[in-house]
Amino acid sequence: MANTLTWQSAVDNLLGMKAEIWQAFWETLIMVGISTAASVIFGTLLGVALFLTSKNQLADNKSLYAGLGNFTNIMRAFPFVILMIVIIPVTRLIVGTTIGPIAASLALSVAGIFYFARLVEQNLRDVPKGIIEAALSMGASTGTIIRNVLLVESRSSLILSITTLMISLLSYSAAAGMIGGGGLGDLAIRYGYNRYQNDVMIFMVILLVVMVIIIQSVGNILAHRLDKR
After folding, report:
1. How is the chain split into domains, by residue range?
2. For helices 101-125 and 62-77, what crossing angle results, to 10°?
3. Alpha-carbon distance 101 to 109, whole Å?
């Protein structure tokens, strides 16, 4: 009976680990924050390129679209854990280490960029063709159409896509703990799985669920406010 887990023993154990939990929580925020920013910036650029070079669009180019699309598909096909291992040499070269949240952010960013690019492409396809044609008839340049038409008209959908991206990266960040990325996933594995401390495992899961709910709720609110339809 001495090893029976009770509510009080679980609370006491978690309170005793509050410094480690806070550190893991901060590491998760670093990983998700850096990778989300990188994914949104470069994923948007790639997504716009995919959209513009697709059939019947402003820069229709079958060969270029096929090349970009196939490369994006190949990168998206990598399971995240395998991707982290494959790019270890690149991570060491760029970051100087393969351990820690900054190093893990590189793998997360690579996964996120190609995932988000496809979301952006789909969001832009939902923009009514007539709006683009109207802008063209008024002499708008391609850059102006991208900034003031495509991205503006799809802003609500893009916010929801960013929300989906963040939740996916949060999930991936938990897996990053398997190879020394740190974060809540690492804590859950080290204590909840390896040391059979179910209270730690349950608390980490609850914390991740709460984070997902908050991210989704904020995303929904922002998307609703930006939706002018």
Report:
1. 7-226
2. 140
3. 12
